[in-house]
Design a protein that fits this description.
- This protein is α+β, with helices and mostly antiparallel strands.
- It has helices at about 40-50, 75-80, 100-105, 110-125, 185-200, 205-215, 215-220, and strands at about 15-20, 25, 55-60, 65-70, 95-100, 130-135, 150-155, 160-165, 175-180.
- The protein has 2 domains: about 10-80, Alpha-Beta Plaits; about 95-220, 2-Layer Sandwich (Sulfite Reductase Hemoprotein, domain 1), CATH 3.30.413.10.
- The strands form 2 sheets. The protein has a 5-stranded mixed β-sheet, covered by helices on one side.
- The longest helix has 16 residues, at about 185-200.
- The two termini are about 25 Å apart.
- The mean pLDDT is about 95.
- Keywords: 4Fe-4S, Heme, Iron, Iron-sulfur, Metal-binding, Oxidoreductase.
- It holds the Pfam family NIR_SIR.
- This is Dissimilatory sulfite reductase (Desulfoviridin), alpha and beta subunits.
- GO terms for molecular function: 4 iron, 4 sulfur cluster binding; heme binding; metal ion binding; oxidoreductase activity.
């Protein structure tokens, strides 16, 4: 299934998504890993209140969307936020969803925050043939849903397990596990190889569909597995 880059009425140049009322917009500042501090929360709340937002919505991509802004207030709101927009629309890396991992969670087996933030810094917003999502969990509870992400990394006592080709949406599918017991460095290296592989297939389709077309063994060969 081909993902459209934008829905009619969205304002990609303002990182704004048209709402159901057909008149107001939502914007979502980028919050890497969903980790946010009180001063940023206060700023978001103050700006939402100042411009008469209808609500603040915690998104599945670990962002805080300011919902119900007027078009004429978008530039001012972004200027006062002084935060990068989240890549909520477009054919790009939309999000890197991260669980608390060993940074915060007593169940964590691996440092999902450390790895996830490195992935976010490098790939968030990168243009790709279709929308692309990543998930990094610190243990097998998989709170960041890595198995339904285009690339998923799940922590175990021995390292990270990497899966590829998962997605949710109207045609959900689980990712295929292609590597286990990876160090952080090995995980970063393999993700880079997978992204470079995907860039060679410019037709707009999710990476799982590319793997279906060429076969999992050919995919492994191309990324050096």
């Amino acid at each position: 299934m081909v993902s459209r880059e934008y829905v009619k009425g969205d304002l990609p140049e303002k990182a704004a998504i048209l709402q159901r009322d057909g008149e107001t917009y939502a914007i979502a500042p980028h919050i890497p890993g969903g980790i946010v501090y009180p001063e940023t929360l206060r700023k978001i709340a103050d700006i939402a209140e100042k411009y008469g937002a209808a609500a603040l919505k915690i998104t599945s991509a670990q962002r805080i969307a300011i919902v119900g802004l007027k078009e004429e207030d978008l530039d001012a709101a972004w200027g006062e936020l002084n935060l990068k927009p989240g890549a909520a629309i477009g054919l790009c890396v939309r999000s890197v969803k991260i669980c608390p991992g060993t940074t915060f969670c007593k169940r964590g087996k691996q440092d999902s925050v450390g790895l996830g933030l490195k992935l976010d810094e490098k790939y968030h917003g990168m243009q790709l043939p279709s929308k692309f999502k990543m998930g990094v969990s610190g243990c097998q509870n998989s709170c960041s849903e890595p198995m339904i992400k285009d690339i998923g990394l799940m922590g175990t006592a021995k390292g990270f397990t990497l899966s590829v080709g998962g997605s949710a949406g109207p045609r959900p599918r689980l990712g295929i596990v292609v590597a286990k017991d990876l160090t952080e460095e090995q995980a970063l290296d393999l993700v880079e190889k997978i992204i470079n592989f995907y860039k060679k297939y410019p037709k707009p389709r999710r990476i799982g569909e590319v793997i279906d077309e060429i076969g999992i063994e050919k995919f492994k060969e191309e990324v050096g597995l």
